[in-house]
Prior knowledge:
By secondary structure, the chain is mainly β. The chain has one helix at 2-6; strands spanning 15-22, 28-38, 45-55, 66-71, 81-88.
Amino acid sequence: MNQVANTTERGQRKVRLGTVIADKMNKTVIVQVGTSKAHRLYKKTVQQRTRFKVHDEKNECGVGDLVRITETRPISKEKRWRVLEIVEKAK
């Protein structure tokens, strides 16, 4: 049993690429992540958008920035993601 405790590894965390759509809160930004899925019956590609509240420790992100976010432990009631890096700043 002790052997299992020593070899436990943390699983892979989810990573998403999205656009910052709001930065009004302190240390928090809202990031919209778009995915496309095929409709079950009609097989047409359908766009799906999800909004995440993301922790931004240094308040670096601005509206329109392309950011990479990762899953993390719960930081507040709705924040479970944090900014990994700013891929591209808004023009």
